[in-house]
Amino acid sequence: MIDEPATDGVPALPDGVEPVDLLTGLCTTRAIRRFTSEPIPDADLATLCFAATRAPTGSNRQPFRLLVLRDGERATAAKALLGTSFRALWAAKREADGYDHGTGADTSSPKARQAATMERFVDRFEDTPVVVLACIRPWRGTDLTVGASVYPACQNLLLAARALGYGGVLTMWHGAVDAELHQLLAIPDDVVIAATVALGRPEGHHGTVRRRPVQELVFDGGWEQPAPWATEPPRHPPHGSSAPLGPDRLQAQFPAAEVPKPQVWRAKASRCWPATPASSSPSWFDRARPRSTSDDAFRARSVVGAVKSRRVSMSAARSGSASSAAAS
After folding, report:
1. Phi, psi of 125 (to 5 degrees)
2. Cβ contacts of 28 within 8 Å, gap of 6 or more
3. Ordered domains of the chain (ranges, CATH)
4. Among residues 163, 197, 222, 249, which one has the fewest Cβ atoms lying within 10 Å of its Cβ?
5. What does pTM read for this prediction?
6. pLDDT of residue 113
7. Residue 193 forms beta bridges with which residues?
8. How far apart are CA 85 and CA 174, in angstroms?
9. Highest mean pLDDT among 97-101, 241-245, 277-281, 317-321
């Protein structure tokens, strides 16, 4: 536990930025993958990182670190590594999840537009103004509970970006070049890269996020036991209208094709929750998972395996370097 003088106070907003209340920020922070070329000034970036470091951690240990990549030589090389990884993993996911089939064949469909956004994101990843590698030095193994001391900081980072007029997205697609990033950026062997967060000024805008109904996600007193009190609260559109954002206004704000229906949410969830009818086209994650292994166990095992694999490869690289030096 860290026992140090607290840093009090709240950062001042830049001139011209309207304050965003907490609930509005939570409900309107979208995943942003399309950025302008505008850089994030040092003062704003400092504010974003400050907000991230206010996140809670187990026993207040604060074991996470934020490695910021902008435009230096090593940062540029790291972005190139990440771009290569992102493009390869997106190509695999696009094929496995059938983004170009079904409604994806219609370029005006939400599915096709999402694919186009992803394609643009990975193709131009090296141009992302700021990339943050959220790292953590685990102090008790590498199971999923360690994430409780790093992922809240990532969410704070994204919420702060929303408050200052920026946007971002969290992704795990650094995994394919994890060992190379450790070597390039001199990250210690016992430090895990937990997430990659891309940040910049949105080409589009934030707005109301669309999620499954709260009743499907909240249980009361037992698994899949309905929670009658978990009802959708009265909502208002983000542009200042005083009329509640009910079904009629939602339909008016978004074209019918863009309003996810409950069956769409359930279909997407079918790959994660066995109680939901299985999708006829398993995702690339499902194909990689052993049939007898649960999602959580597979994810946990994958995290541990990635860490062990990286440590082995890094140790082998150092051994090889030492052998070469001795031979010369």
Report:
1. -60, -40
2. 20, 162, 206, 207, 208, 209, 238
3. 1-210 (3.40.109.10)
4. 222
5. 0.72
6. 92
7. 135
8. 6
9. 97-101
